[in-house]
Amino acid sequence: MAELTTLSGDPFDRTAFESLLKRRLFYTESFEIYRTSGNLTGDSRGLYDYGPPGCALQSNIVDLWRKHFVLQEDMLELDCTILTPEEVFKTSGHVDKFEDWMCKDSKKGDFLRADHLIETVLEARLKGDKAARGLAVEVEKSDGTTKKRKGPKVNDIKAMKLDDAQVKEYEEILAKIDNYDGPELGALIEKYDIRNPDGNSPVLPPVPFNLMFKTTLGPSSASPGYLRPETAQGQFLNFKKLLEYNQNSMPFASASIGKSFRNEISPRSGLLRVREFLMAEIEHFVDPEGGKKHPKFGLVKDLQLSFLNRSTQLAGKTDLQTTSLADAVARGMVDNETLGYFLGRIYLFLLRIGVDKNKVRFRQHMANEMAHYATDCWDAELQTTYGWIECVGCADRSAYDLTVHSKKTAEPLVVREPRREPLKVEEWQIDINKAKLGPTFKKNAKAVETALTALSQAERESSAAALEKEGVISITVPNLPEKTEVSEDLISIVKRTRVENVREYIPNVIEPSFGIGRIFYSLLEHVYWHRPNDPARGVLSLPITVAPTKVLIVPLSTHPDFAPLTLAISETLRAQGISCRSDDSSASIGKRYARNDELGIPLGITVDFDSVKDGTITLRERDSTKQVRASQEDIFSAIKSLIDGRETWEDVFKRLPEFLGQSGDE
Amino acid sequence: MAELTTLSGDPFDRTAFESLLKRRLFYTESFEIYRTSGNLTGDSRGLYDYGPPGCALQSNIVDLWRKHFVLQEDMLELDCTILTPEEVFKTSGHVDKFEDWMCKDSKKGDFLRADHLIETVLEARLKGDKAARGLAVEVEKSDGTTKKRKGPKVNDIKAMKLDDAQVKEYEEILAKIDNYDGPELGALIEKYDIRNPDGNSPVLPPVPFNLMFKTTLGPSSASPGYLRPETAQGQFLNFKKLLEYNQNSMPFASASIGKSFRNEISPRSGLLRVREFLMAEIEHFVDPEGGKKHPKFGLVKDLQLSFLNRSTQLAGKTDLQTTSLADAVARGMVDNETLGYFLGRIYLFLLRIGVDKNKVRFRQHMANEMAHYATDCWDAELQTTYGWIECVGCADRSAYDLTVHSKKTAEPLVVREPRREPLKVEEWQIDINKAKLGPTFKKNAKAVETALTALSQAERESSAAALEKEGVISITVPNLPEKTEVSEDLISIVKRTRVENVREYIPNVIEPSFGIGRIFYSLLEHVYWHRPNDPARGVLSLPITVAPTKVLIVPLSTHPDFAPLTLAISETLRAQGISCRSDDSSASIGKRYARNDELGIPLGITVDFDSVKDGTITLRERDSTKQVRASQEDIFSAIKSLIDGRETWEDVFKRLPEFLGQSGDE
């Protein structure tokens, strides 16, 4: 993989980046004072708190998501509970199948996720081979960042020559690592003698580990429950009410934003693999007939996306194909318009919050990789220093969930709609003479009737012939030991035409599912850069819509004359719902701008001696560091118009006079 | 209690009200299709899902909360994890003390909450007494609503005369029912022979039941964890980082909005006592010295609130005192300005979202009622058909939490600030001659040194005297069996003046804590009424800021000419971020308005034949049902101005021409 660069083309320095995020409290490990003081003996990894700027950024992303999807597409938002009784997840398949494969270190007892173990070991061997061949390899530093190194000084890498066939084998395994099931992973571990890199002990064969957190509801211990691993089930259980709320009109979508939980075997990569996370999920219910067209597909069809499809990966490759959504659907790579429409909307959403369009790809899942409920799935992946990260999944869950819940509860989770043309069905019908059947079979009469009605069309046809020929048929009735004979005085079987005026179907579900924490982290990597030749001056170029704080207010100095104006500006902005931050510390104005660039604050107001005299203030733009000067009224209205998206900075810069003094950015 | 009335003065009909909320999907029982089909065998009560209008109302309340508190008061918002390792809640006291008292039915095995049991039984007896005296009593109908009834036809009430002293005793017990601990509740149960009303069996003595949900973190079973019962602990654990983020300036507040969980023994009263709920909590950190003044107290001091203080309740009464916050603080009923300031801000927030100001009171907790961490607590209670409901708690947690976490982790959770005047402290200091102490006590030297340094000022003073007189002192060293003698060649104890330039203190915490679900339900009761003489036409008079949907669009009929304009209006509004709903069903326009009044939609646009001709549309206001007519541009700008709060309906009605035709509301 080519080395990642920042927006300004500099190599990406993850150490500097993550130190900025933690220093400025975008996020922090949960219970850190307990961890660092040695008070946490158990496994409480994979849990993070968001501090003020992180929390604001997260809530702005969620807000924009709600506008982009729920409001703009008129979706039905729900807020369902996290706690869920066991019965629901038994039906949905999560109790039996929501698992990862886990190996236990035979000596130390550590638990390792099987696919990650194989990946780590094979990647290390490939590096060893490169080192042995004298090629440059990526080495990981203690902080988790990587650098290309060559030669004998490459740390931690055992030079070890592999033959060419082996290299090819390893690379192919890695390309489809997500596609192996447990026994296959076990076979790979045995075949390639894969051991725990920490201590080199052999590991036991992979066993399934259920990823749901379990608890008990109520004071008795008889009611097991789980924390939901996705918000979807609550939406499915409410399907009937939602359809009613939507005045029985199809298609429609429900949506939910909320926390979900997965008990990861070994959390890693900071915010990217955690045990508690914020999700935003859409369940779009669509008629499975008619090719799943979407009326608004035309709005996204010309978007050019980068695709990595299933067959490319199974061939052990990772080449991207860039093409329009129209073409992808026409060629059948993306199955249908509805799926294509959502891939387009997902892409537009990601760009809208500030994701770098050169760091987005859409990857199709391989067969074994898909969740148990999915028939097809595309992930929107964002490129980061941790590799390509799955941030949005877009799965076709077919009619799986509605069917299983409907079966379990006997509640028809279906759409009924009048047919334009009544449907005529030729079929064999059974007429039962109940007045005679009862006395004939007595207590078994009901069971016989049920067995008769259960006969298939083919069975009915042959039974009709038998009845005509022999005057009697013999059928199997559950719980009765022998075949039961039913004679022609009890039933007749005739072919008739039935007219169906109503069509009944179980909708299919297309599910775009967003991992907000992963998007949050990847986005921050995408917008991070530093001022030319000054790696210490980091900037987060977040779009104004999602920036945690919109306006920084800096008085020129700590002179007491500035305080009333600074306060008045801040109150005016707050009253308009615009978040702002005053920095009136004694640091130089340049330093204060620099440290607030780290928070991604897009606009800065300076209060100086002229402000006190004539009321004018300056407005600085974060990325260009350019400034304009005008009356407070003009500056406030420019700020409002920038936030509402009515003007760009270029517009404002053209229409208000530039200010060249005291920029502090030199 | 006087019978509750709606905004329009009609008696409150809870059956009609709750049926409206469920029918229009404000909320619904979770997993309802599992429950009704008999698939839930365990105890999964107390869990509710919010449907589209409920979800929007909830998120609008949260949004306003964020503006009213976080933005306007410049609070530091955090988003901390729900999953928390056991160690944290051991320290905070929740593992040992976060309990309710529970009785088990000796025959049926049901679990009952002890205080609720006593309440139910004594209230029933008081009713029986009234019935025996021939007075009117409140009777509960099968749907949970109450009506006043008199005479022999009073259902379910056993007329049973009590003597006057008994009536007084029961009434006093009920007034302070929240103040009894477990053994006291047990004594009451025995004294008054209180049994399970369902079956009349005796109950076993109350035992404590911990209300936290337990789970396990990670794949091994060695890491117990809990779902947080409040968001507060995450905020306390991050105190040090927050103080730093706030540039070490005090006072400041953090805030969190998120789900919390309490495993209620017997959930009841719909949304009011549930097991999973949304909370919004503020932790305001304040210097305990200087009387906890608040610089903005002046902004709220003249607000008149209704108070029910501790001493009134302990006297067995419930009379309210209405007075200004200034007076309440001056008289010491409310302990300090900071507490008073937050009571005022809470009150303003409640009014802002639409709570009826005649149905709010502030009740002080009695001593035993307070959570283990609180030294004082006032609840904002809202009056509903279920009685007065605690919706916001405002507790003074003193320095409790920061102190215990600091002790446990050895992390100083303190504020250090330079003293204006250095503080001079006269104190006895111990000088230890370490060069001699080591060889003298060998392996015990460290322990002896620790014991010496631990001596209090009083002990040092007497030791100094002893040392002077006898040349030796004898001290107790932990883990050494006998007294240890330390002679004057090893130590000297002298009085010196120490100068302290820095003051160090643990802040106190004032915690306003909002139960969003309870506020949500109570608010809906407050804004519910029906059109005169038409109980079937319910209206929810939600303020426009929190209303789930802002605008209803109704074409006059299903005529196809209306469709393009209806769609265009809806797209224009959505593009401006204004939520709207089109109702183009074939029902009469009056019926369509009526059913959308049930959703609390404040504004309605009608598209009629004139609209198609000249582009004008009408705008209807929900509460008055009055309409104006103007160009689309004027109507859109009026809508925007109403939503932003720049104009009231009265303003708009005055400036735009009234429309009198086709109102559909007659």
Automatic annotation (TrEMBL), chains A, B:
InterPro entries in the record, alphabetically?
aa-tRNA-synt_IIb, aa-tRNA-synth_II, aa-tRNA-synth_II/BPL/LPL, Anticodon-bd, Anticodon-bd_dom_sf, Gly-tRNA_synthase/POLG2, GlyRS-like_core, tRNA-synt_gly
Catalytically driven reaction(s): 2 ATP + H(+) = P(1),P(4)-bis(5'-adenosyl) tetraphosphate + diphosphate
Gene Ontology molecular-function annotations? ATP binding; glycine-tRNA ligase activity; transferase activity
UniProt subcellular location: Cytoplasm
Which SUPFAM superfamilies does the entry link to?
Class II aaRS ABD-related (SSF52954), Class II aaRS and biotin synthetases (SSF55681)
Report domain Aminoacyl-transfer RNA synthetases class-II family profile positions: 201-532
Report the record's Gene Ontology biological process terms: mitochondrial glycyl-tRNA aminoacylation
Keyword annotations of the record: Aminoacyl-tRNA synthetase, ATP-binding, Cytoplasm, Ligase, Nucleotide-binding, Protein biosynthesis, Transferase
The UniProt entry's GO CC annotations, sorted and at most eight, read: mitochondrion
- What is the protein name stated in its UniProt record? glycine--tRNA ligase
Q: From which source organism is this entry?
A: Aspergillus mulundensis
- PROSITE patterns of this UniProt entry? AA_TRNA_LIGASE_II
According to its UniProt record, what is one Pfam family this protein matches?
HGTP_anticodon
